[in-house]
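Quick check before the chapter quiz. The format below is the same one you will see on the exam, so make sure you can read both the input and the output lines.
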Amino acid sequence: MPQWSDYSTGERIKILRGREIKQTQLAEMTGLSVVTIQKAEQDKTLSLPTLLAIADSLGVDTSVILGQQAPRRSLCREDRAMLRTLSHAVHDTAAGALPDTEEEPTLAQLRTMTERCWSTYWQGRYSEAGALASPLLKEAAAHLHAQPAGEQAAAWGALADAYRVSAYVSNLLGVRDLAYAAIGHAQHAAQMAGDGIREALVTSGRSWVYLRDARLAEALKLAEKSAIDIEPKFSRATSDELTAYGSHVNFAAVVASRMGDKERAADFLSQSHATGARMGSEHRAHGTLFGPVTATTQAVGVNVSLGQSGKALALAESIRDVSGLTDAARNRYALDKSMAQADARMWDASLDTLEEALVRSPEWARHQALPGVIADKVGRASTARLRRVSKLIGGHTGTGFAQATAKTAL
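Here is the expected output.
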């Protein structure tokens, strides 16, 4: 099974270029001649200026082209370019490098921009959310710089929000170093803002980074802390406070389930359901959505992780309407339900559920690993639908690299 480093430099350029970019287009993008591009892909010549131009145009580091670092699966050229721009924004603003702006945005304008970022993110349009986060970071940093000493708390809060959404985009797309950096800067900004809920939100965000980095024990510790820190008194809690708390205990249940801790997961789910019942309906606040439907759909995923497919399917039967959820939450629930059906050997139902999610949200789906896992499980029982669903999954791999190297371990 070949590794990324096993390919020649020319082969790696060709794979990264994929089917979406012709040699003539890459030549135009780089300002190089078509002959130079052809020679580079044939391993005949690759000067440093040519290497730098090609790497920049394809949105990757030179180390990826040279085989020293593998590209991230499912990322197309636009994704990689966005992540480089976002990385620059995260690190530049943290270093105090501010944009040249004639007029700093107001706090209200920053809040509107932040809401748009989160809305785009929860629709599963991650590259677009990252593209919006870059200018948001710069504008938030400029706004903070313009505030007089002693009157910066709200501005620090806006900057914390911008760093947090940047961390979420980076983490979901697998750029772990950038996610760690962004969530670290978010933590500092939230502390400067003196906002307890924001600090808890950032702590929960760091827990998610740890979870994706397989640091499960640390992830659970942080998830529990973030929930405890903002646990409200139900008798007088606002919808915003309940939304923040409910989403936190929900996530703590997810982490506990990944560790196989059924008792703790059940305890967190109980708190989640109680919070949702208290709210009565879904509510959006602090860049997230929570309510009784969110609590139940998340419980389906938690029980799937714990190997309790029967319980997961019973919960799914009780869910009648998911239209109030975000696109990403609705699609994730579909994957959890499909996995539960596959575990229960309901092959056709599993593929139907999976196919519906893939067709509904192809942009979201190409960043998910679970569809391939489900297809592999269902594949043990030959079905007519499997070929169609497998084709859909193959279509979501993004770059020519993923298509050409589906057999590689990256």
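If your answer matched, good. The beta strands are 283-285, 288-290.
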